Amino acid sequence: FGGILQVIVHIIAIRRANLGKIFIFKNHKKKEENKFYKNFFAATLGSSTMHISAFIDTWLASMLISGSISYLYYANRVFQLPLAIFAIATSIALFPMVAKAIKNKNEDEALKLMKKSALILFAVLTISMVVGIALDKFIIELLFQRGAFTSEDTINTALILKMYLIGLLPFGLAKIFSLWLYAKEQQVLTAKISAQSLVANIIFSLILIKPFGAAGLAFSGTLSGFVLFFLTLRAFGFDKFVKMFKNY
Questions:
Q1: Total-model pTM
Q2: What is the pLDDT of residues 64-106, one digit of tens each?
Q3: In Å, how far are 5, 90, 240 from 221, measured between CA atoms?
Q4: Of 62, 130, 176, 231, which is most buried, counting CB atoms within 10 Å of its CB?
Q5: DSSP 8-state secondary structure symbol assigned to residue 104
Q6: What is the 8-class DSSP label of residue 64?
Q7: Who contacts 43 (Cβ-Cβ below 8 Å, separation ≥6)?
Q8: Do residues 209 and 60 lie in contact, with contact meaning Cβ atoms separated by under 8 Å?
Q9: How many CA atoms lie within 13 A of 147 on its CB side?
């Protein structure tokens, strides 16, 4: 219901701003129309891989000891908090400026913006990761330990939270560098990168689930985050990455 409400609110806003015409293509602009839908569906597919990964993790966790699904869910909710507050919020605010700079053929300005954001994000995510790992049990106990949620559940969830938090930096920084690809209208490439990360997550999960259980599933997600960051950085360009931090 919440998702439907969000769509309705955006439709109302589009109509009030008289932006409905952006979805209307003239016959001679068929090429632009095809390009729009191609990028749109590619971006949708790319953004859905995280949900697919969560579904697969839940399915695999159902084969483990009782409570594993809950451990993963609660730990992931805590992990998503700094990711959303810092990484996602930063990428949303940064994207229009990067896209505008690239459209105006001012890549130097875009790189300066990305460098500044990446450094700030690196600092806040590192602090979040260290604090989260140091206070993992306290955080879980404070948020969830009541009723049927016992101290043993706290210990198990805290371990999984640690596994997730190790991947906070790569997931967060990948969002910053993926902005370059989106601004360059390379949504298909970002979708392929997300799909490759998903495949890596599945492979790691199948390898680690037996020896480490739910913690192995969480760490598999972290490893896939490093894969995502590496592939995104490779698409962005290692030379450009070095140049960005060397010259700007």
A1: 0.85
A2: 999 999 999 999 999 999 999 999 899 889 989 999 998 898 8
A3: 30, 22, 27
A4: 176
A5: T
A6: S
A7: 182, 187, 190, 191
A8: yes
A9: 3
